[in-house]
Amino acid sequence: MTLPRQELLVGAHVSIAGGIEKAIARGEEIGATAIQVFTRNASRWQARPLSTDAVAAFRAARKDSKIAYVAAHDSYLINLASPDPELRDKSIAAFADELERCALLGITDLVMHPGAHMGQGTAAGLSTLVESFQRIFSAAPAEVRVLVENTAGQGTSLGARFEELASILERLPQGNLAICLDTCHAFAAGYDLSSVEGYAAMMAEFERLIGVEQLALFHLNDSKKPLGSRVDRHEHVGRGLIGPAGFAALMQDERFAGVAKIIETPSGDAHCDDLANLALLRQLAEGKARRS
Fold first, then answer.
1. Alpha-carbon distance 81 to 133, whole Å?
2. Where are the domains of the chain?
3. CATH architecture of 5-285
4. What predicted TM-score, i.e. pTM, was given to this entire model?
5. Distance from CA of residue 55 to its chain's centroid?
6. Gap between the Cα atoms of 67 and 31, Å rounded
7. How many Cα atoms occupy the beta-carbon half-sphere of 13 within 13 Å?
8. Is there a contact between 174 and 185 (Cβ–Cβ < 8 Å)?
9. Which of 19, 96, 267, 291 is the most exposed place for a label (fewest CB within 10 A)?
10. For residue range 26-40, what is the model confidence (pLDDT) as tens digits?
């Protein structure tokens, strides 16, 4: 069964340059029905508080928009699994701030990377991460859900294997948690979703360990690097080593018809690459594009 175009929640990570409210218009420029944003500069620890005017402008722009889904992504500096007490405390404070910013803006999903164990080992890193989350959730806004994103496993990054993601969710029953699945990261971590059969096998493993009902968002990125490389390098949809067949299988999977799908690749001149990627995803969903 193919999915009608109007039902698809597809879009891109868009810039907030000049004001976070401008992200909505940028999403509309590429015909997005879903977008992802940063709520602050992702490369700095310090962030200006959101002004009342900025919050009001963002909420108004979203209310008048056809964009039905908005997620935020946290700062890349945050490492809730760090064994360094100073960096960990700094990360906890920054992530708590991210949650509060989302609550102010009415953004109900915040994507985060599980962090890196920095040499303490996977088991210890996961325990540190869980302890950090326990501190955060004791005072977190209930309306904001945390989406733990799988990683490529680069360096000492946690979350490359579904077993690790399952462990995080199981150990935090008090948390408002779900999963964001990045296709490039999964491929680089060793999950071969480049064929219909490979995609089915990956999702069967996800269902066995976590449950597909826990999958709340997709990052649809192709991979520049080989299967199992553990190197995170995004490529435009269908132009990398995953290729169109795997994306077609995902886009036509009825279980995820209502789950938003976001691309995270360079937009190109006049958004040409965003437009091409989103057009291809819609064609794949409708069964109108080449699958292999």
1. 10
2. 5-285
3. Alpha-Beta Barrel (3.20)
4. 0.95
5. 23
6. 9
7. 18
8. no
9. 19
10. 999 999 999 999 999
